[in-house]
Each structure stands twice: as C-alpha cells, then as structure tokens.
Amino acid sequence: MKASKIFISAPISIDWSTVQCFESEIKKRGFGVSYWERWSKYSNTDLDSSAAVVFILPKNQFECGHSELPIGLKTELSRAYAQGKKIYLGYVTSTGSYNIYDVNTNGKYIKGISGTANDIYGDLKSQDNASQFLEDRMAKKIAQNSQYGAWVGNPCGEIELPKGPTGSVGSPGVAGVAGIEYDERLLLMA
User: 8 - beta bridge partners?
Assistant: First the structure.
C-alpha cells in the first residue's frame, strides 16, 4: 500500500532546519513528504498531488489572518482549500516538539485547533486504508466477474456463456433453439 504524501508549506522567513525537522517527523510515521525547495523554480505539482498540506506560519504563530500571511502561503492556502485538501498547521511547542494540528480555515484565515496534535497521522492512515480497501474490492470484483463467474486472460477473448433455461434469440424456456447451444447475449466489457 502506498502511503499518502504530505506537502509542507513554509514561508522563506522560517529557518530551513524547522522544515527539515517537520519532514523528519512525518517520514518517521511512514508518510511521503514534499515541499518547495527554495533554490529551485516553484511548481504547483507537489502541492496538487499531495493528500494533505501542513502550513508552518511566520514566527511560529498558531493562527494567522489573510493580511499577515506571506504571498506564497496565501496562494497555497487558497489553492489547497479550493481543491478540498486536508489542511493542517505545523507548530513547534515550548518543549521543542514538532506537532501538527487540525485547523479552522476558510482558505484565507488559518487557526490551529488545540488538543488535535498529530491527528493527521491517524486521519491519513484511515484514508489510506479506505483507499486500499476499495482498490482491493474492485480488483476482486473484476477478477471474479461477479455477473458471469468467468475470468479470461485476454479481455478481448471470447468466453462461452453459461447455458440456462432461457433459449437463444428470444425463445424463452427452450435451450438450443435452432441448434444454438448457448445464450447469445451481448457481453460488454469496460
């Protein structure tokens, strides 16, 4: 199972070691991490492909209004909000712990929610498990081909449909009408 990727959004004013410490904490929990590397050209690709975004606010604030946010964070916050991504706040506690909190946000204002430290990991694990369950269920359904109970290696290959009490070509109840041995229904495969 592939773990969710978390994007870290941090202003240039934040010391780079803070971003690296959050990265380390997230990786310890088994999640992928991406962020804009300050010496490279900016691209939205990593943010767009992430499952969640962790915002580190200027001066280690726990809440920040639109006018206080640096332009890059404003843009990334509104983009993540518009895409319906899970949004969190990275905060360094007075004891030096690198915690990630749930937030209240409207895409312009962001405020951490006390008592939710590191809920992100359980949230994303649940999301990953649900995604994996759906993928496994779909694969099993395809493999079993629930309607006909048949599996063919070549999806374009022909399979013999089961014989039944219904006759072919619209003649109910008489199997093998006109010498045809099986039901001739059209089988559409996606």
Answer: 35, 54
Four-residue CA torsion sign, 89, 94, 113, 126: positive
DSSP track, 117-171: TTHHHHHHHHHHHHHHHHHHHHHHHHHHTTTTT---SSTTS--PPPP-SSPSTT-
What are 28-44's pLDDT values in tens digits?
988 889 998 888 888 88
**Residue whose structure tokens are 């969640």:** 52
Place of tokens 């360094």: 92
- Going from N- to C-terminal start, the domains of the chain cover 5-134
Q: What is the largest CA-CA distance in the chain?
A: 86
Torsion angle (degrees, nearest 10) of CA 43, 45, 48, 50? -110
Residues 6+ away with beta carbon under 8 Å from 180: 168, 169
Separation CA 158–CA 22 (nearest Å): 55
Assign domain 5-134 to a CATH class.
alpha beta
Rounded CA-CA distance 145/153 in Å is 12
Please say if the pLDDT value at position 144 is more than 60. no
The structure tokens 């109840």 sit at 173
The closest of 80, 91, 86, 94 to 114, measured between CA atoms, is: 91
